[in-house]
Amino acid sequence: MADTPTNFRSFDQQDHLQVIDALRGYAILIVIAVHTLGYVPDLAWPVKRVLTMGFYGVQLFFLASAVTLMMSWHRSADPFGPRSLKFLVRRFFRIAPLYWMAVVFYWFAYQIQAEQFSLQLLLATLFFYNAWSPYLIPTVPGWTPVPGGWSIGVEFCFYFTFPLIATLVTSLRRALVFVALSLGVMLAASHFGQSLYPEISPEERANFLYFWPPNQLVVFALGFLLYHLIKDESTRRRIIASPISADLASLAMLGATLAVALSIGLNKLFDWNQGLPPTHLLMTLCFVPWALVLILKPSGRVINRAITGLGKVSFSAYVLHFAVLKYTSQLLHQLWPLAKTGVYSVAFEAVFLGLALVLIRAIGEASYRLIEQPFIDLGKALLGRLQPPQPAGRPAR
Question: Any idea where the domains of the chain sit in the sequence?
């Protein structure tokens, strides 16, 4: 298989992988879809139940992030210390500037009142430890500096541990061990977490225990497993030789999503009475083989310019889409000439989602070019200054 374009060497050395952008594009698409539901309260139940599965687009983001970071990590031959420093600097300049600017943006866009301000919440958001307490996300009533910021806090917790984990999880077998250990962490967090914060309601506690990092670690572990499955020669040969295509795998993924939506729904934690795993684990287990096929067979209708373009600006789209949905909804509710119940509710949702996607794509592109890319370049420039000069006659690695 040395001449195939999907061999791991060529895949691992690409700076911008179209298929990873496609996965991110689908992730932000379903995240946007689920967040439209708050503005269409009378949406027909079957459609609402299916769109609710967009709640797990965040896990698809986590999965794609783990794979991308592993590829980047293994492209470097630097010692552990310099490699870790470069990794953290790149991640900081990739995420923090836009995220911090969003705190100011949402203060005015959501017209937050001065009495709602909390220095504790602000610091937790700015320094990415906001997912460790229900009062900092918050899952209890309070100011949210950046809507959806819990996932960014969780991801940064993963960044801080990533260099060590990437150094230890160096094979498919070790990736399987990491998945098993992370499942144990999830079980322990789900069980012992029930005694935390007794003053909050059971629903608030369940939301917190879903959001906090110990419950999400298994998703990143499955991302490590996906990376090593891609790298595994036997797995690549079997997938490439099989009749499955990216389009067929996507149909299977859609079918699995419908089955989970209609049979289980949103199960945030292990259901000890019925023996049901949390839905985010089930969905991630579905995402892994789907992503594996798309990565090893990157062709078909599901990998297209529209979805990869959306994926490229997915971080800006994620951060800003909450405000876009709010103001788009206000405008559309004023202009909509039909009813918003029954069949008409589906039409309203379709128009709302389509219009929002167009606006989010345009605004995300502008944000990516004007904010994200300049700070990414600034991070690269800073690393260039920190990089010690190479001795004469020795090529840079």
Answer: 8-386
